[in-house]
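Exercise 7. Given the components listed, write out the predicted structure of the assembled complex. Treat all entries as one system.
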Amino acid sequence: MQTEGRTQFRTGLPDLNPAGARGGIAVVLMNLGTPDRPDPEAVRPYLVEFLSDPEVISLPRGWRWATPLLARLIAFFRAKGSAANYAMIWTDRGSPLLSISNDQAFALERELGESARVFVAMRYGRPSLGSVFEEIASEGIHDVVLLPMYPHYAGPTIGTALQAAYALLGQTGLRWNVHVLSSWHLFEPYLEAQAAVITRHLAENHLSPEKSVLLFSAHSMPVSYIRAGDPYQMEVEASIRAISGRLEWPSDRIRISYQSRLGPVEWLGPSTEHVLKELAAKGDRQVAVVPISFTADCVETLHEIGIEYRKLFEHELGGKLHLVPALNDDPGFIAALRALVERTIGGMN
Amino acid sequence: MQTEGRTQFRTGLPDLNPAGARGGIAVVLMNLGTPDRPDPEAVRPYLVEFLSDPEVISLPRGWRWATPLLARLIAFFRAKGSAANYAMIWTDRGSPLLSISNDQAFALERELGESARVFVAMRYGRPSLGSVFEEIASEGIHDVVLLPMYPHYAGPTIGTALQAAYALLGQTGLRWNVHVLSSWHLFEPYLEAQAAVITRHLAENHLSPEKSVLLFSAHSMPVSYIRAGDPYQMEVEASIRAISGRLEWPSDRIRISYQSRLGPVEWLGPSTEHVLKELAAKGDRQVAVVPISFTADCVETLHEIGIEYRKLFEHELGGKLHLVPALNDDPGFIAALRALVERTIGGMN
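Answer.
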């Protein structure tokens, strides 16, 4: 019947577009980025690219010309120390953020089945968004799901990733059906997956609320961004409330802090460092830190929490710090991403 | 519990973002456009804008500089005739395409409920996409569904609309969650709505396949576009097959044609004019024309089919032409749009 119909409505023209419709779906997991190697020569250009983004260092209007200079200056002074930090967490598979992102893409692609390709794209460094878009275009895919791997919206993370994506789509004339999935900080399957990862880690390490504090540590942000309307703090705290409600852990043994400050402006607090000292001063000797704003382990979780804050809390303050892993390729998290993508794919077909 | 949690995790900072998260959803119904008035002074700039789009008149690479000149030249010669055509279909409410688009937006907004605002944006003329984006931004909405009102993808319709949207998003730095819904030519509720509108019209006019031919007339396109990979013809014919399967009308009494050619290149055929003459020559005296590629009645349906082709078929060929209305604000069609949007909204929350 289908075939008869097809014959019936042929126009007499040859079949001009035999390749068929625009084929398949591309899912792009977007993350921040990583240098190619843990040495100053590779870290310096990565830092310059990162710090030159006006969404990352927002100078007053009259001073924006100074952004590239400032970026180079900071990169010059920080490259060596930053490279040393990366060196401490580097693995046989290279950058943890990149290898974990690739694991996530592999697992999600396997979950989604044959019609979807999953790509990793970094806002800074490689693989660049431009190179990934080129690959998608070369495969003739026109339905693209952009999935920033941050549960909480912030200008310097999701904002800049979308800005780069829209600019590329506009400049290169790509007429794709684009779907951006960036509002998932209260998406049930994500909350469930995060709660399960925490619960598992607490159980495996025999941690109890009587002896341990659960500390959610989120990446900080200049307070001026929040004042200007960025929903980051609100979304982070909403996630933490929703996740805490799924844990068997009393709320007075749960704390929240903000890490990874940079520069002299006022940042969201309290700082993770401050809270760790406060806990030690009150006599708490065990803490489990959940890197709540990260979905893949990276220099901020593995080095900053796992090495730097651990040194502070264990060596200087005499406690024991447990670092809860990021969601990484946890099957529950991959299933959550699958659910997020499939709802959208459902809307496209 | 929610409130307690909120208190528990307050950071001590004042509530910096009391306006709450990015509020609500904007749905943008995108269509081609219309002049402001049916006179040559208003039609000329509209035609210049339309014809200056390199997706509409695609000149060879070395000749692109000539596009604005050619646009002005064609607009100069066509403005008077085009204005006369518009004048014949103009209503008390102004341009049919615009007033029908506003009806669609109103009906869809009522269906979607309070959390959604629905806007009409035109690729050429007013309201411009830029002005609509400004309004959305001023309302603090960050979740935007772009819905080109063409069921079938073509570069000169959906392609250019998306190009304009992405360029605006990139230039203006709008970091919205954007969802593009342009793959709905086989979306079941759309097919059902289109079949129901056709069935109703046939019944109301007591048309039977013994005496009448059902002719699907789609907007034509240069064959070179199809050869370059545009899926338009394939999607149009796939829709027609799927809709025909829902009608109680024998497939040998169904025809397909392409209308609205412009310029001297090779266009998709057979032309609507040609098929009408062929039907008359074979002795068919009744035809019901379905403007398949249009979702709102406009100059191409009301004037080109309803006046021009009617004159040909009735006055010159002695038959009777029935123009099936476009989907317009048919409740079934609005419900289909609602289903399309809600699936996507579901994926966003």
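Discussion: The mean pLDDT of chain B is 90. The first strand of chain B starts at residue 25 and ends at 34.
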